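The authors assume throughout that readers already know how a fold can be written as discrete tokens. For illustration, here is how one protein appears when written out as sequence plus structure tokens:
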Amino acid sequence: MPLITIHNVLKRSGYSCFSLDFLNFKALNLLPMSLSLRNLASLAIASMLLVSSGCKKEPFLVDTGYVVWTGEFIDGGCGWLVSFPPDIQYQPRNMPDSYLVDSLPVVVTYRDLKNRPDCLNRTDVDGQIYVHKIESPL
């Protein structure tokens, strides 16, 4: 059973809650079919904090760029990136396999997750994005 933190669920949902960042909620053991009373109470408290903290959902952005293969992590690469002009590179968290083609031009609707990329050995990667929609003009 995976452990899911409320903080991570909020970040994945696109909420920018800097006041919640320092709380770093305890992990909840969310069962797929049933929730305990304790988990429901924790979710209710987190929901109240979300509403009362003035969190806002980050808007989707639309940019034109290229899919770029930078190499394997072990070789100093960062895997697949989306590169936007002039020199902005993001690591997509959920890129569909059909778009994993080096130098493929794409139009991406995305949300900046404001997370560090998984490849910490590279300083030219600006962060991670959640891909909402992706198209290639080809």
In short: The CA atoms of residues 53 and 64 lie 34 Å apart. Residues 37-52 form the longest helix (16 residues). The beta strands are 15-16, 56-57, 61-69, 80-84, 88-92, 104-112, 127-135. Residues 18-33 have pLDDT under 50 and may be disordered.
